[in-house]
Design goal:
The structure holds 2 protein chains of 2 kinds. Chain A is built from 17 helices and 10 strands. Chain A is α/β, with parallel strands linked by helices. In chain A, the strands form 2 sheets. Chain A has a 5-stranded mixed β-sheet with strand order 2-1-3-10-4, with helices on both faces. A 5-stranded mixed β-sheet of chain A has the order 7-6-8-5-9, covered by helices on one side. Chain A is globular. In chain B, α3 packs parallel to α6 and α8 packs antiparallel against α10. The chains are: A alpha/beta, B mainly alpha.
């Protein structure tokens, strides 16, 4: 028994035992402190989160939200799955992969309705389409482990391409050390344009791969214990996004302070491009952040076909999302 | 004691500890239902190795190549630089403290610059492995050469031996035990340098070495593949350490007490 206790203590120490904190925060009056792990540095993609935090809308929902900066080596998805943080910004494919491995995480908000992920090339590049690029022996700066690269490999071949790691620096692309790089049409492409590098973006969404690429995920234990807090979180976040899309200037200024590499010019231009990706007929009918079962099922099917998720393990996924309270509350959960 | 029996008597205690740790790990994962994305069991890691042997072995080969060349550069460069610093006292006072920079600058910070200087692929990774592992060789060579018996040095001087001859026949052999201590430390560091260099400086896809396999598997939450790649990297480190030990034993076996 003593040995078992010792092992339990060791593992709790290694992976972070959160029970004490939860008990404390629950028993004390005032807002409950929760942490949101971002998967990248502060930029307009997180505008709604910072807007809600800056305006105190999370606090009104009884939450003291800490937004933790991310980066290329921050395993945000694993952190929320293990309960190290309560919420995290993860990609839809990551969330399904984790659920297929038994992780208890649920998507509660999709920032983008249309996948802004793409491949950017110089405007004077000989590659005029994803097809011509992917059939060449070009060097692409990108994370070749990501599902969308596998998708493109399956669609267009890609056997001759060389991949080099993307660590967040645009310098190799600007210096033409690489022929193409992965990007968000709302982020890197804008930065390049403002650096005086004319470019063309090939959107992956146009090839038939259009997952919910940036979702807010919650740890299921937290969701089960505090459903009303999660609901309050998503309502505040929805309000944050609606407000940020209308007037992003103040929050952009704040994010620029947190990430000085993102100039105000980039943030302004980037946020002006967001509505095309954040809004859709679904969001008009329901609310910003809305997700449909059909699109999650389509993604699951695609990931199984790509070999990212084992066909048998896909059975463990279940319902991976919970919609934010919509305009018509009765439709929540779809 | 015969070679085989001696090898076995040296090997069984660490092997036993490794086996025990693996059993505890396997039992703990089952007992506490630890999900694979947090900590895969040893059996799952083994399964990952079995599932993709050609990809992982090819990756190991690429990392081994960079590690070996990087280690060879640091071994030769470290011995030459350490010897030069012994010969020129002014250079020793001026340059030796600066070589400490190699030890102190975090590799992750300079690795992106290596890509700028050497381009992607094996040259950057070799440079990373060399930068991280060269200092122990310089320091141990310097210590070894400075510890040579002054009486013997005087004898060589009286017989009119030149600098190179004294180095080759007296200083270098006398410094070998120290040099091999530095090389053993450098062997482990070369693996670390190669893997970190690969995180930012290597090709992915079909040309991926172990460092790229690790970052790619992390993105896919394939923790079992991450651990499999780490195990292979550790095996490379052990192999290089063993190789250095073997070479040290072969060179020192006739005269130095450390190998008896």
């Amino acid at each position: 028994m003593g040995f078992r206790c010792l092992l339990l203590l060791l593992i709790a120490g290694l992976f972070g035992c959160r029970s004490e904190k939860e008990t404390t925060t629950e028993s004390t009056p005032g807002p409950m402190t929760v942490q949101v792990q971002l998967n990248w540095f502060p930029e307009s993609e997180f505008g709604g989160l910072y807007e809600a935090e800056q305006n105190g809308w999370f606090k009104q929902a009884g939450l003291q939200v800490e937004l933790l900066k991310g980066g290329p080596s921050v395993p945000a998805a694993q952190m929320v799955a293990s309960g190290q943080v309560d919420f995290a910004v993860v990609s839809g494919p990551q969330l399904l992969t984790l659920r297929s491995q038994g992780a208890k995480v649920t998507a509660i908000f999709s920032t983008f309705q249309r996948n802004p992920r793409g491949i950017v090339v110089h405007q004077d590049s000989p590659y005029t389409s994803l097809d011509s690029l992917w059939k060449s022996s070009a060097t692409v700066m990108g994370e070749d482990g990501l599902a969308f690269i596998k998708w493109l490999n399956r669609e267009y071949g890609g056997q001759k391409l060389s991949f080099v790691p993307y660590t967040g620096s645009l310098a190799p692309f600007i210096g033409k050390k690489v022929d193409a790089m992965q990007c968000f049409a709302t982020a890197e492409a804008v930065q390049l344009e403002l650096e005086g590098v004319p470019n063309t973006v090939f959107l992956v969404a146009d090839t038939g791969y259009n997952p919910y690429v940036t979702v807010i995920a919650v740890n299921d234990a937290f969701l089960e214990k505090h459903p009303e807090r999660v609901s309050g979180f998503t309502s505040a976040l929805r309000r944050g996004w609606e407000s940020y899309l209308k007037s992003p200037a103040k929050t952009n200024q704040y994010m620029h302070g947190l990430n000085p590499d993102m100039t105000m010019e980039v943030l302004e231009k980037s946020s002006s491009r967001l509505p095309a990706f954040v809004e859709s007929s679904d969001t008009q009918q329901h609310s910003i952040g809305w997700m449909t079962a059909q699109r999650w099922e389509e993604l699951q099917q695609q990931l199984v076909e790509l070999g990212q998720i084992d066909r048998q393990a896909a059975g463990k996924i279940g319902t991976p999302f919970l919609n934010p309270p919509g305009r018509d509350e009765s439709q929540a959960g779809e | 004691m015969k070679g085989g029996a001696r090898f076995w008597s040296l090997s069984w205690p660490p092997l036993l500890v490794v086996c025990l740790l693996l059993i505890i790990w396997q039992v703990a994962v089952g007992l506490f239902s630890i999900p694979p994305y947090m900590l895969p069991s040893p059996v799952q890691v083994l399964q990952a190795l079995v599932d993709e042997p050609s990809r992982l072995l090819a990756a190991t080969g690429r990392t081994a190549m960079a590690m070996l060349v990087g280690f060879a550069c640091s071994a030769i460069g470290g011995i030459v630089l350490g010897s030069c610093l012994t010969w020129v006292p002014l250079a020793r006072r001026g340059v030796y403290p600066l070589t400490l920079i190699l030890q102190m600058v975090p590799l992750v910070a300079i690795a992106p610059m290596l890509v700028v200087w050497f381009g992607w692929g094996i040259p950057s990774v070799i440079a990373a492995a060399c930068i991280v592992s060269i200092f122990p060789v310089i320091a141990s060579t310097l210590d070894g050469l400075q510890s040579v018996d002054p009486g013997l040095r005087e004898l060589f001087r009286i017989y009119g031996a030149g600098k190179m001859r004294t180095w080759w026949m007296l200083g270098f052999p006398a410094a070998l035990p120290n040099i091999f201590t530095g090389l053993r430390i450098a062997a482990g560091l070369a693996v670390i340098g190669a893997i970190v260099g690969e995180f930012v400086g290597s090709y992915g896809g079909d040309q991926a070495p172990l460092g790229s396999v690790i970052t790619s598997a992390l993105k896919q939450t394939r923790t079992d593949v991450v651990f499999a790649a780490i195990a292979l990297a550790a095996a490379l480190g052990f192999a290089l350490f063993g190789l250095v030990n073997l070479l040290g034993w072969w060179l020192l076996r006739r005269w130095h007490t450390s190998v008896h």
